[in-house]
Amino acid sequence: MELRIGVVGTGAIGEDHIRRLTEVITGATVVALSDINEENARRIAKKYNAVFYKTGNEVIWSPDVDAVLIASWDPTHAGYVLECIKAKKYVLCEKPLATSAEECLEIVNAEIQGKKKLVQVGFMRRYDTGYRELKEMLKSGIIGEPLMVHCCHRNRIPGPQHTTDMTIKNSGIHEIDVLRWLLDEEYESGQVLTVKQNKNAESELKDPQIMLLKTKSGVRIDVEVNMNSHYGYDIQCEIVGEKGVIRLPDPNTILTKLSGRNSYEIYADWSFRFTRAYDIEIQQWIDSIKGSGPVGPSAWDGYVACITADTLIKARKRETIEPIIIQPRPEFYC
Length: 334
Ligand code: NAI
What we know:
Layout: E1 3-8, H1 12-23, E2 28-34, H2 38-48, E3 51-52, H3 56-61, E4 67-70, H4 77-86, E5 90-93, H5 101-114, E6 119-121, H6 129-140, E7 146-154, H7 164-183, E8 187-194, E9 209-215, E10 220-226, E11 234-241, E12 245-247, E13 255-258, E14 261-264, H8 270-273, H9 275-290, H10 299-318, E15 322-323
Parallel strand pairs: 1-2, 1-4, 2-3, 4-5, 5-6, 7-10
Antiparallel strand pairs: 7-11, 8-9, 8-15, 9-10, 11-12, 13-14
Bound molecules: 1,4-dihydronicotinamide adenine dinucleotide.
1,4-dihydronicotinamide adenine dinucleotide is lined by residues 8-14, 34-37, 56, 71-74, 76, 94-95, 122, 124, 170, 270.
């Protein structure tokens, strides 16, 4: 049976997911889509033989749509996810789940009230081969207990609407989620350092920023989130353990020997670096919702990431170390 998917938001990643659902993924067809950029959405609808709807809610409530993928701007996520829960439809929402922890809790409570897990959040790094291998190695105990984690999240240039808060809530949120998943424990406190300003950054934008996190067991994490690397999209993660060190494969591309030089390509953005992770994420989402329901990052994971990001932003503004206070995990998400 082909699952009929509706897509809300057909910008960069929305269009890429539609291509993926059509050309790579098995068992699903994109039948409906919507975007406030009607001209672009109509072009994509024509290309993929889907029906264009004026509003996201019409896609969500359409009887022709079995499940929904949300890839619109961050502030629109919560409203659409709540609508999907009302319509009792499975939804894969791109990260972040919402722009505040309060909105995430509203989603969590609505899902609990509906008594069915419907929501998955697009934290696709959990599906990346490198991160998966790191997790397996950590579990095997080969480097002993992890003690420290050093990460870099470098973007070539920021998007046009990028803000200082989004560096944490939109970009750094990937590390917030994936490190919590890798280490399998919660955060205790966080801090954000701003550094000498990159003069290539917009004057309003504090860039780069360093997120510092401490987990409950005392693991220390530093993440450079840099929106203006100018050289490419570069993701690094090194875990220092009691007996050794493990690193995400870097470089992630083929070594080329040419014209007297060794060189590696550095990807321009996320779409190249994590292509395979998105493929696996979406295929598993489709397979799981055809079965007993989503098994990927839940609304609860979306909430924990968001409250952590909110706390880090508060810490940056106050120039303090802030405790990360997470509500007790409801039985529903255990
Ligand atoms: P984009 O700006 O290229 O596309 C967003 C689209 O949403 C635009 O076409 C815009 O017109 C549309 N939109 C805005 N408000 C809307 C509304 N109320 N209803 C329907 N459509 C609306 O941005 P991009 O890069 O595609 O990002 C979209 C979302 O995906 C963001 O939330 C972002 O955080 C997430 N994302 C996730 C990535 C990942 O690695 N998991 C990578 C890139 C983006």
